[in-house]
Amino acid sequence: xAAETSTDLVVLGAGPGGYAAAFRxxxxxxxxxxxxxxxxxxxxxxxxxxxxxxxxxxVAKLLAETEEAAAWGIKYQRPEIDLPRLRAWKDDVVKRLxxxxxxxxxxxxxxxxxxxxxFRSAGSIWVDHGHGETTTINFKHAILATGSxxxxxxxxxxxxxxxxxxxxxxxxxxxxxxxLVVGGGYIGLELGSVYARLGSKVTVVEMLPxxxxxxxxxxxxxxxxxxxVLFEDILLETRLESARETDSGMEVTxxxxxxxxxxxxxxxxxVAVGRRxxxxxxxxxxxxxxxxxxGFIHVDAARRTREPAIFAIGDxxxxxxxAHKASHEARVAVETACGRAxxxxxxxxxxxxxxxxxxxxxxxxxxxxxxxGTKIQVARFPWAASGRAATLGRDDGFSKLIMDPExxxxxxxxxxxxxxxxxxxxxxxALEMDATVDDLAxxxxxxxxxxETIMEAAEVFDGHSTHFYRPPxxx
Length: 475
Fold this sequence. Notes:
alpha/beta, FAD/NAD(P)-binding domain, Enolase-like, domain 1, 5-stranded parallel β-sheet
């Protein structure tokens, strides 16, 4: 059965970018249809990504603290893991949040359309609801927010239950005695940490010379040191050559940088080697929308594609593939569709790795400065000198500021330690406000807090940090 309708704006994909766009457009008075196969808004982030992973990482952190508390004179028996109940709790978190978004959708008058959409033209899409039911929606504007999916490795059996991507891993099918994580990026390290805390012996294999490629090495080192204890093994500059399923598990052959191979068996494999945009099979060939060789959509500063009526936001537009970036791009796309001048030009986009310790950064990194030949000055304040960090039993972190030595303008912020993801927002705001390091140093921070470490890092530049001494630079 086929139906046809019209709307001011159609949004393809109900993740953090898509539902933010739909809600903002509805608030502006537009009629909006939000298309997604799920029953409520949320997308990968809420259903199969950010939210369930952070729920499990909170559990992992709690388990770690029960072990570390022995050093403070508090001893616990080893916790018992009730996996079905843990899985149900995680699913309930997702259900409550997505259900709440569904309520917001109804209150705003957004029409939720379940199904998969394809463009018929630059002003019409066709939605397949399944069971032979379809709808044609004519629109004035469209926003593509279809997100991304995990990259699969061709040498691995695609139909083996022993091979998991991030989605399968978040379902917690079991706690494998031996788990191989393929990929030393943030997804692999976050989920590897969860399974290690739950009881798996975890090995991480990474092709590149370091974990978290692209992140400043000093930020990664405290995490790498802690993971070296938590994980069974971390194999850098190592490549997965082949894998086959046997009665005892997945038999995997790995090759090191010296060309030597080793074969070992793991109960499960978690593949976390990146994500690719969901831009295939959308009927883009029926429009003027253009993509690059990797499938990412070309957009201008207003998030408009080569097709004037069609915008694109989020993962489909390229790196960084972050939910909060998509949400802010949604604002720009909707404002532009409403006829207002708007561009996506942030000074800083924060990034967070929710491991233990957490790593967060924004703005210019030291690695980027070196590559570009940019003159910078760097100051670090070790959390070993923080009273608040001492009360938490965690002195392995630090705060880092990157400054323009001529203007003293803040160029970048890096943090490593518990709660770094919460603290980084101060750095983002400072960069957006074009603050100097003096602005940070003169801002009164509450004591005792971890936020003080940002203030004291600013004071380090001139050798005035109260709790850490470094002779000031002369001349």
